[in-house]
Amino acid sequence: MSRIKSCIAAAQAAGRKALIPYIVAGDPDTGTTVSLMHQLVQDGADIIELGMPFSDPSSDGAVIQLGAERALRNGAGLDTVFSIMKQFRQQDDRTPVVLMGYLNPIETLGYDSFVAQSADAGVDGLLLVDLPVSEAESLLALTRPREIDVIFLVAPTTTDKRIAAICDQSSGYLYYVSLKGVTGAAISDTGEIEQRVSALRSRTDLPIMVGFGIKDNASAIAMASISDGVIVGSALVQKIGELSESDAGKAGGDAGMLADKTALIASIRKALDEKFV
């Protein structure tokens, strides 16, 4: 059983909703990213989505684009991502980590090398925003033997034919995009999302996580009530972006500074548990 599947099964057995924060690898620097990951676990994260910085993140809003720019300015690339993972795994071999990003840097490196290095670094899942499920077989042939889950996005505009293929090929969980547009926008129609998630649930036994637009306790509770868990990205990356360049160098070793930037995750964890457990 993969680490992701085991983690979600344990949460479901306890009646807990999964909480999945997203941060950008290398934002603001490598050491701080590792420390942030440990802090997020302490705050109650079940799974961490670690963004692979890319210069043209077309599905991301301004906040995450700025996070990627900060990381890239500091020289972050796939080598940085793997280094962060190895450092994190030195102290934590339990928390699942999903790498999220875009195909271009991976294709430059090559699927074989990317998957091999991901497995060696302790990566549990991949979520590649611009990988069509119809073109995923060559990647899946490499990830499946290594028990690396490949997670696909399902959006409000996803066709029934594509949903069927996604349900067939995905593992770990499904990422339901709560709204049309980019990350960081606000959720406007909870009823429509509930209908779509319910329809999706009738087609798959995979856990369904909802992301995009979750920025506070209220939106997290609303989305968790119709799903198996929630993903929090832009609101967290925005807080990390408040670190000045001088702060960034200190933050990795300053537990108070880190806890301040991740306080939203601790607050959402508490709110979810009070509501659902």
Report on this model:
The chain has a single domain (3-272), classed as Alpha-Beta Barrel (TIM Barrel). The mean pLDDT is 93. Strands 5-4-3-2-1-9-8-7-6 form a 9-stranded parallel beta sheet. The longest helix has 14 residues, at 30-43. The protein has helices at 3-13, 30-43, 62-73, 78-89, 103-109, 111-121, 137-143, 160-169, 190-201, 217-224, 234-240, 245-251, 255-261, 263-276, and strands at residues 18-24, 48-51, 97-101, 125-128, 149-150, 153-154, 174-177, 208-211, 229-232. The protein has 277 residues and is of the alpha/beta class. The protein is built from 14 helices and 9 strands.
Question: Could you give a quick summary of the protein structure above?
Answer:
The chain has 277 residues and is of the alpha/beta class. The protein is 50% helix and 13% strand.
How many H/I helices? 14
Largest sheet: 9 strands, parallel
Overall CATH class: Alpha Beta
**Residues in helices, as a percent range:** 40-55%
Cross-sheet strand order for the largest sheet? 5-4-3-2-1-9-8-7-6
Shape: globular
Rg over alpha carbons: 17 Å
> Percent of residues in beta strands?
5-15%
Number of strands: 9
The helix-strand sequence is HEHEHHEHHEHEEHEHEHEHHHH
CATH topology: TIM Barrel
How far apart are the first and last residues' alpha carbons, in Å?
25 Å
CATH architecture: Alpha-Beta Barrel
Structural class: alpha/beta
